[in-house]
Hints:
Layout: H1 2-39, H2 44-71, H3 80-112, H4 117-144, H5 146-151, E1 152-154, E2 164-166, E3 170-173, H6 177-217, H7 230-261, H8 267-291, H9 293-318
Antiparallel strand pairs: 1-3, 2-3
Helix pairs in contact: 1-2, 1-8, 2-3, 2-8, 3-4, 3-6, 3-7, 6-7, 7-8
GO biological process, one term: response to pheromone
Protein name: Vomeronasal type-1 receptor
InterPro entries: GPCR_Rhodpsn_7TM, Vmron_rcpt_1
Amino acid sequence: MELETRLIFKAVGFFSLITIGVPSNVIILTIFVHIRSTEKKLLPSNAILSMLALVNLLVIISKGLPQAIHSIGIRNIFNDIECKIFSFMYRICRGMTICVTSLLSCNQCIILAPPSKTWLSFKQKIPRNLPWIMLFLWCINIAIYPSCLLHVRAIGNYTTSKYTLHLEFCNHDFMTFESYVANGIAIALRDFFFVGSMTLASCYIVFTLHRHGKQVQGMRSSDKNPGKSVEYKASQAVVLLVTIYVALFGLDSCIWIYTLTVSRVSPAISDARVFFGTLYAALSPIVIMKTNKRIKTVLVCGTTNRIQATDSTMTDTTE
């Protein structure tokens, strides 16, 4: 009975994540690709958001979808090659969510920075070099996980070393203590640097917004509510995204630390950690769609055009 309850909660959780995350990320990607193709340009912040939507989508496909399939009783869904591909994709794309969210917060921090000579140089260089920055982030994450392509295998009747991560569908055998430790150190350094960067950048954004709010309060009463600028609203959205990520990352880390202190980890705990580790991929596109002006404009225009087309069709039919 307990097993059935766990699988029911698991199925509801991961199928909800897929139902919300896949369409919303696809919508964001489609809108930004359409803007890029029609206007021949894309704001740096929107280019970063499109990359975030892409890696979110791949995270859901590579982790959320297999977990959902497993929850309805289908086992042994991967062979060795598929295990390598899905494990490699998930780990790289989950790492990219950290890096891209950090890049988004740092970019917004630079936008809000005072127009000094140093900051002006950053403001000019980031848009020009954004493709190279993205490529560099991909290279960092690919370099961390070569063992996924070498040592990940489907679950089967074979002997593994004690340095093996027994995942739901696959086994990741690091073979040696040195490989196991090196991989852990590389991941920890990446996470510490990028999570720390996004946290510091967000703190600066919050400080800037607070200072801006105090300046607005000091204005004349007639000018007290001139309307929030695009930069102000974008900054609030970035801070919200970072807050969600840091909260989920902290929860994931706490569960991971707990698993290190017990001899036998409950399957429900493992499921919870995977769920919270994947949840950002479904929550962040909702925040983006709610707060990004270009996306909201396209969605509203699309809805209006559909309503007008429906009214026109009904009128023609009536006549």
